[in-house]
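[agent] plan:
  1. take the single chain provided in the ticket
  2. run structure prediction with default settings
  3. attach structure tokens to the ticket
  4. add a short note for the reviewer (M.T.)
[agent] executing step 1
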Amino acid sequence: MKTVAGIFQNRADAERAVESLRALGVADRYIDLLSPGTSAAQLDAQVTTTETEQPGMGKALGGTVGGAMGAAGGVTLGAAAASLLIPGVGPVIAAGLIGAALFGVGGAAAGAAAGNALEDNIAEGLPHDELYVYEDALRQGRTVVIAVAEDGEPATQAQDVLAQAGAESVDAAREDWWIGLRDAEKEQYTAEQGRDFETDETLYRQGYEAAHHPRARGLSLDQSAENLRGKYGDSYEHPAFRRGYERGQRRYSELRESRQS
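[agent] step 2 finished; step 3 output follows
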């Protein structure tokens, strides 16, 4: 199974993409729509709890869970819809189980509850490396559609469906994210390190992105050393990677604080 995703400027286009995925044969439980800006109180008024609700999911997710309808009255996924409070982002509607499993909202209990409702191979294969890209899109008021399809042609077709509905790819969104940060990071790095940023940029960016991985957030280089060495090898020891990691941690901390104020 492979996860595909698309980022949309508005929810209406995202809902059309969901319907196209269904027409392609992707099951509802393998589709999730994440939409920003709705509080738990608003969701209470919009989502009706039904007997199709996953037992215990509402409590575990820390939000209102309803079956058979999306919170805005549009897409109907026949699965859980919850209002999730994502650190550094704010309130987000997750229409489906994938988003809750991916974000692990509410800590281990929430992630486990959603993950247990999915097949083990799907829950374990969710793209946590892309999480910060989804978060950035949601902060900008955009909508994210995530789907899981069979490897090969089905996954390619699902990705094509998202593109045809107007989705920006995750790779393109990741580049836009870095472009928005690059000038400030270049200025800071050059002033502090006295090195050529263009020469060190690849390693610096690797470290910066590594700091945004869920397993690394809030952890120092020493605390993350084992995971970082395992994934990045010798790059972990390079000063540019290490400085990028430190700057990435600082940015994530600032985002969390700004969303809490």
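[agent] step 4 note for reviewer: Residues 173-260 form one domain.
[agent] ticket updated
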